[in-house]
Amino acid sequence: MGTDLPRRLGNRIRKLRTQAGLTQAQLADRAGLSEEFMCRLARGKKAPSLATADRIADAWGVNLAVLFDFGAPAPAGEKEELLEGLRVLLATEDVEKIRLVVEVGRTIVRQR
């Protein structure tokens, strides 16, 4: 692993950030880091201290070990979990009920 660690960690950070639907600026803000520093991390040009890595993990609400588990799939974010929950909930319903849920959802989203 050795000198390969910054690149692997950068790839992992980019993967987690993308899956969470965050921009680099948003992740940097959540972690209390500069966007430039986050960019260097994501490109593997800089390796974070353990304290900084912990702040990045906290920005996703995951354990520090998840950040360094390069073989594991990225954890599902809350949005993905909720969408999957809706899919499971509606999977056994008839088309008319699903249509009604979609219309109610559209009405709610438009009211924002």
Structure notes:
With 112 residues, this protein is mainly alpha-helical. It is 69% helix and 0% strand. The chain has seven helices and no strands. Helix 2 crosses helix 3 (35-42) and helix 2 crosses helix 4 (50-60). The longest helix is centred in the C-terminal third of the chain and has 16 residues, at 95-110. The chain is elongated and about 55 Å long. The N and C termini lie far apart (48 Å).
Break the fold down into its secondary structure elements and pairings.
Elements: H1 5-19, H2 24-31, H3 35-42, H4 50-60, H5 64-68, H6 78-91, H7 95-110
Helix pairs in contact: 2-3, 2-4
Point out poorly predicted stretches.
none
Beta-strand content bin: under 5%
The topology string of helices and strands comes to HHHHHHH
Bulk shape? elongated
Number of strands: 0
Count of DSSP helices?
7
The largest pleated sheet is described as: none
Distance between the termini: 48 Å
The whole-number mean of residue pLDDT values reads: 84
Class by alpha and beta content: mainly alpha
The gyration radius over C-alpha positions equals: 18 Å
Oligomer: single chain
Helix content: 55-70%
